[in-house]
Amino acid sequence: KNSQITKVDTLVSFFPEGGSVITGVNAVFGIKAVNQMGKPLYVKGYITDNTDSTAITWFNTQANTGLGKTSFFIGKNKTYIAHVQLGNKTLYYILPSSDQAGSQISIKQETPLNIKVVIAQGDSLYKKGVTSYIIGLSKDSICFAGIGKDMFELNIPKADFPAGEAKLLLLNDQRKIISERSIYIPNTNV
After folding, report:
1. What is the full per-residue pLDDT of the chain (190 aa) written as tens digits?
2. Is this model's pTM higher than 0.85 or not?
3. Interatomic CA distance for residues 169 and 133, integer angstroms
4. How far is CA 73 from CA 19, 49, 57, 119, 146, in A?
5. Which residue stretches of the chain are H helix?
6. Strand ranges across the sheet with 44-49
7. SS3 127
8. Distance CA 132, CA 126 (A)
9. Residue 130 and residue 172 in contact, taking contact as beta carbons nearer than 8 Å
């Protein structure tokens, strides 16, 4: 019976946007659910924290892709648990905890012309004058570069990127990649 539970526990994965969970901001988690054969799986569930059993937010994945997402505010000193309903079973997953020394790049808003990104810092970095660099890459070209201190927002023009997949990289003051976010730029000249 334990080996069955272990197999089932590997079906659902949670991925924080930008790779880090930062206290004091809305976190977005990508969700991927597959069966033991690697085929997409529909699941639904909800998130609670360690102080209350009331659902903070609900989520589900799509049956044809097994992908979904959820977002909620990350409070200080809290642990978050995903309750995944799979048939008549409920599986529990402890989500990654907040990273006090982490940094995150996330998408706040997208318009036809711009992508508004937010750079968030963990509590140990916040308001310490920490410089961050953001680079937008598409294929082999740098399409955007920016700089900021502490937590900041900026608009990135989509017109600077060719259509297709691109990446936003966040670098610290030692020029090391500390967060990454993939984006997709649609083709506007159809």
Report:
1. 333 333 444 589 999 887 778 887 788 899 999 988 889 989 999 999 988 888 899 999 999 999 999 999 888 888 899 999 888 888 899 998 877 667 788 888 889 899 998 888 765 555 677 888 999 999 889 999 999 888 888 999 999 999 999 999 999 888 898 888 888 988 765 5
2. no
3. 8
4. 16, 11, 10, 16, 27
5. 2-9
6. 52-60, 44-49, 80-86, 89-94
7. coil
8. 12
9. yes
Backbone angles phi, psi at 42, to 5 degrees: -85, 125
Listed in order, strand segments (DSSP E) in the chain are 12-16, 26-33, 44-49, 52-60, 67-73, 80-86, 89-94, 103-110, 114-121, 131-138, 141-149, 152-157, 164-171, 177-185
Number of C-beta neighbours around residue 24 at 10 A? 15
With tokens 């206290």, the residue in question is 23
Amino acid type, 45: G
Residues in the chain: 190
Q: Which two three-digit tokens encode residue 58? A: 């609900």
- DSSP-derived secondary structure for 39-53: -B---EEEEEETTEE
Q: How far apart are the first and last CA of the chain?
A: 54
The whole-angstrom separation of Cα 186 and Cα 76 is 37
